[in-house]
C-alpha cells in the first residue's frame, strides 16, 4: 500500500529492520564468522567485502570459545577496525553459548539461517561443495549483506516457558504414539473391544475397563467373563476412583463385557498383545499425569508474565493454548508486526504476481513448524466458542467467489489467532470483537462519522 511519500508500509518495516541490523553490523566493525561444531570451531575475521583478514581453527568446545573471540578482536583491532560483530548459524545449543560469550565481551551478535547458507553455498561455485572453512566465510558474507537476524534475547521466565513447551510437545507425541499402538494391537487380536465406544481411546471408562481386563486375565478373556457383570463393574469403579474419576459409563461397560466372548482376532497373539496393551495403558496414564502437571506449570509461568488475562480475553483461547503458542514465539514484542509473527509460523500467504499473471496463492510453509501446530490446535476451541471466528469460517467456506475448503478456512483462523494474540500482548489491551471483525481503521471511520 503506497502513500504520499512513495514508500509503502512494507518498505517502512523493511527499512526499520535493516536499520536495527545495521546498528549491530556497523561498517566500522569487522565480522567474525564462526562455523560451530562439537569439538572443532572454524573462526574467520572478514571485512564487509568478505575479504578474509584472519583465520584459525580452534580445537575446543563451545564454552571455550571466549579465547577465540578475544583472538578475533585482537586481529580486527590490529587491522584498524573499531570492533567486531559475531555471527554464526543457530546450531543446536552452541549458538546460545556463543551468544552469551559475545554478550560478556559487549560484542554484537547475530545469527544466519542455515537455509541461507545452503543457498549461498550453491551459488558460490554452482556446486554442493561444503567445508567448515567455506561455511565460516559464507556466514560472514551473509552477515555483511545484512542477511541475518537478531536472535531472541535471553530471559529467564520466557526461557522456562520455552522449555516447558518443548516438554509438553514431547509428552503429546508420546501419548499419540501410545494410542496408535493400542489401536493397532487391538485391531489385530481383539477388534470387538474398539467397537464398544464411539471414541474408546478418549473414554475414561473404556481405559479403566481395559486396564482391569489386561491386568486380570493375561489374555484369557474367559477369566474376566467368569467374574460376572456386577463384580466387573465394581472392579472398574475402583480403577476409575483410583484415577480421580467419579463413575463409569454403564453402557460402555455392558458392551465391553459382552465383547469378552467375541472370538474375532488373531487369538494366538492375544495373550502377548494384551500384555503390551497393559503396559501401554500404564504409560499412557503416566504421560497424561505428566502432561497435566506440565500444563499447570505453563499457566503459572503465564501468570508470572502477567499475560493470562490478556491472552484469554480472546474467546475460545485457553490459558494452556496461549502458553503453548507463546512457548514457541517467545516474547511477541520482538516481532515488529503481527504479520512478522504469522510469517514466523509459516502461515503467511505466498503470492505469485507478474504483470497480468496471477498464480495460485499458497502458504509459505517456512518458519517454525511447532508454532504452526500450536496455532492449529488452538483453532478447534476458538472456532466453537468465538462468534467472530465462527462467522469468518462460515463466510470463507460459503462465499461464491474464491470459496475455501474447511482446512483452508481453519488455517486462516489460525493466522488470525496469532495476529490478534500479538496485538493484545504488545498493546496491553484486551481483545475487542469490533476491532477483530472490522479492523481499527474501520472503527476510526465510524467514530469520525458519528
UniProtKB/TrEMBL annotation:
<feature type="domain" description="Transposase IS116/IS110/IS902 C-terminal">
    <location>
        <begin position="309"/>
        <end position="394"/>
    </location>
</feature>
<dbReference type="InterPro" id="IPR003346">
    <property type="entry name" value="Transposase_20"/>
</dbReference>
<dbReference type="Pfam" id="PF01548">
    <property type="entry name" value="DEDD_Tnp_IS110"/>
</dbReference>
<dbReference type="InterPro" id="IPR002525">
    <property type="entry name" value="Transp_IS110-like_N"/>
</dbReference>
<dbReference type="GO" id="GO:0006313">
    <property type="term" value="P:DNA transposition"/>
</dbReference>
<dbReference type="InterPro" id="IPR047650">
    <property type="entry name" value="Transpos_IS110"/>
</dbReference>
<dbReference type="GO" id="GO:0004803">
    <property type="term" value="F:transposase activity"/>
</dbReference>
<dbReference type="Pfam" id="PF02371">
    <property type="entry name" value="Transposase_20"/>
</dbReference>
<feature type="domain" description="Transposase IS110-like N-terminal">
    <location>
        <begin position="32"/>
        <end position="191"/>
    </location>
</feature>
<protein>
    <submittedName>
        <fullName>Transposase</fullName>
    </submittedName>
</protein>
<dbReference type="GO" id="GO:0003677">
    <property type="term" value="F:DNA binding"/>
</dbReference>
Amino acid at each position: 500500500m503506497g502513500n504520499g511519500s512513495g514508500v509503502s508500509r512494507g518498505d517502512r518495516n523493511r527499512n526499520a529492520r535493516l536499520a536495527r541490523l545495521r546498528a549491530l553490523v556497523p561498517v566500522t566493525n569487522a565480522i567474525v564468522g564462526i562455523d560451530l561444531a562439537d569439538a572443532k570451531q572454524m573462526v574467520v575475521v572478514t571485512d564487509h567485502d568478505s575479504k578474509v583478514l584472519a583465520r584459525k581453527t580452534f580445537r575446543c568446545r563451545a564454552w571455550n570459545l571466549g579465547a577465540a573471540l578475544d583472538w578475533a578482536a585482537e586481529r580486527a583491532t590490529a587491522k584498524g577496525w573499531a570492533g567486531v560483530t559475531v555471527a554464526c548459524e543457530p546450531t543446536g545449543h552452541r549458538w546460545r553459548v556463543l551468544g552469551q560469550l559475545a554478550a560478556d565481551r559487549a560484542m554484537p551478535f547475530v545469527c544466519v539461517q542455515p537455509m541461507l547458507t545452503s543457498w549461498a553455498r550453491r551459488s558460490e561455485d554452482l556446486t554442493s561443495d561444503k567445508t567448515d572453512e567455506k561455511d565460516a566465510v559464507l556466514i560472514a558474507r551473509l552477515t555483511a549483506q545484512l542477511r541475518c537476524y537478531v536472535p531472541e534475547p535471553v530471559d529467564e521466565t520466557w526461557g522456562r516457558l520455552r522449555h516447558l513447551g518443548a516438554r509438553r510437545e514431547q509428552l503429546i507425541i508420546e501419548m499419540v504414539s501410545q494410542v496408535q499402538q493400542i489401536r493397532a494391537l487391538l485391531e489385530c487380536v481383539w477388534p470387538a473391544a474398539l467397537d464398544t465406544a464411539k471414541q474408546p481411546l478418549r473414554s475414561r471408562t473404556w481405559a479403566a475397563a481395559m486396564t482391569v481386563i489386561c491386568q486380570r486375565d493375561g489374555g484369557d478373556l474367559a477369566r474376566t467373563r467368569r467374574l460376572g457383570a456386577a463384580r466387573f463393574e465394581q472392579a472398574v469403579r475402583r480403577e476409575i476412583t483410583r484415577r480421580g474419576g467419579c463413575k463409569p459409563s454403564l453402557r460402555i461397560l455392558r458392551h465391553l463385557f459382552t465383547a469378552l466372548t467375541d472370538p474375532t482376532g488373531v487369538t494366538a497373539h492375544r495373550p502377548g498383545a494384551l500384555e503390551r496393551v497393559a503396559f501401554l495403558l500404564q504409560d499412557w496414564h503416566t504421560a497424561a499425569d505428566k502432561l497435566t502437571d506440565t500444563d499447570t506449570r505453563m499457566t503459572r509461568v503465564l501468570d508470572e508474565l502477567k499475560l493470562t488475562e490478556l491472552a484469554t480475553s480472546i474467546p475460545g483461547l485457553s490459558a494452556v493454548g496461549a502458553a503453548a503458542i507463546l512457548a514457541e514465539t517467545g516474547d511477541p514484542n520482538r516481532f515488529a508486526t503481527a504479520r512478522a509473527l504469522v510469517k514466523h509460523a509459516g502461515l503467511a500467504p505466498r503470492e505469485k504476481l507478474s504483470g497480468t499473471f496471477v498464480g495460485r496463492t499458497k502458504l509459505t510453509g517456512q518458519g517454525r513448524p511447532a508454532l504452526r501446530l500450536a496455532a492449529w490446535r488452538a483453532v478447534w476451541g476458538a472456532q466453537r466458542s468465538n462468534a467472530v471466528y465462527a462467522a469468518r469460517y462460515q463466510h470463507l467456506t460459503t462465499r461464491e467467489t474464491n470459496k475455501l475448503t474447511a482446512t483452508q478456512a481453519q488455517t486462516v483462523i489460525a493466522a488470525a489467532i496469532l495476529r490478534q494474540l500479538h496485538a493484545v500482548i504488545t498493546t496491553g489491551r484486551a481483545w475487542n470483537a469490533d476491532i477483530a471483525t472490522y479492523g481499527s481503521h474501520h472503527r476510526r471511520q465510524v467514530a469520525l462519522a458519528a
